[in-house]
Amino acid sequence: MPNMTSPVQRLFNTCKEVFAACGPGIVPPPGDVERVKAALDDMRPEDVGLNPDTPYFRIMAAERSPIIAHLCLHECDKFSIVIFCLPASSAIPLHNHPGMTVFSKLLFGTMHIKSYDWMVDGSGGASAVLGNPQIQPCGVRMAKVKVNSEFTAPCETSILYPANGGNMHCLNAVTACAVLDVLGPPYSDPEGRHCTYYRDLPFTSFSDGASSSVPEEEREDYAWLQEREMPEDFTVVGFPYRGPIITTND
Questions:
Q1: pLDDT tens digits, residue range 198-215?
Q2: pTM for the predicted model, two decimal places
C-alpha cells in the first residue's frame, strides 16, 4: 500500500527525530541536517495550503504599511515550524537567531536576502580588520557579509547555524513570497533566546586606521551591526494555519 503521509507530516516527523537530542547552540549531526533539508527541499506551496492568490496577500497589500503574516504549524521546546507570508516590497528587518539552527525554504516568489556572521578575533585575519576596540561604540559589533543575493523559488533550502551560515539576516520581498522555516530550538524569552534587531552601518564608520588594512574592494564585505529596537513600521500578524493537519502523537 502506498505511503499516504503528507509532505508536511513527513517534515514534522523528521524534525521530531532530529531535534530530540538537541538544544540551544547544539547543531544536529550533518546527516540529520541533510534529512531536514531534504524534507524541506521537496515542499511545495500546495503542501501547506498556500498560493500567491491566498487572501493573506490581498489583505496585507491593502494596508498602508505592509503587514507580514505569520502561520505557526507547530511549536514545542525543541523546534518550531512556521511560515512567513510577505507581500511585495515588505521586509523582515535585520535580526538574529541566538543558539539556533534555522532551515528556510522559499516556497514561491523572489526575495533578496542579506546575511551576516560575527567577526571573531583570532580567525581569518580578523585582528587587523577589527581594529581598535576602544573606538567601537557600545552595542556595535563587526560582522562579515555571508549572503547578499536574490533568490527565486524553486530553490534549495538555506541553513544558518548558531555561529555561522549567516545567523543575522534581513529579508526583502521583491514579489509576494512565502518562506517556510524550521527553527531548532525556537525563540524563547524565558530561556534567553531573544530576537535582537540591528541596523547595519558601513565598515568605514568606526574602523579608524583598520580600514586601511582592508582593500577598498573588500570593504563592502564587512559592516558594523548596531542593536536597535524593533522597527515601528515592522508588523507581523498571526493567522491560523489552514493547510494539511499535522498529527503530533503527543
A1: 999 988 776 555 555 566
A2: 0.89
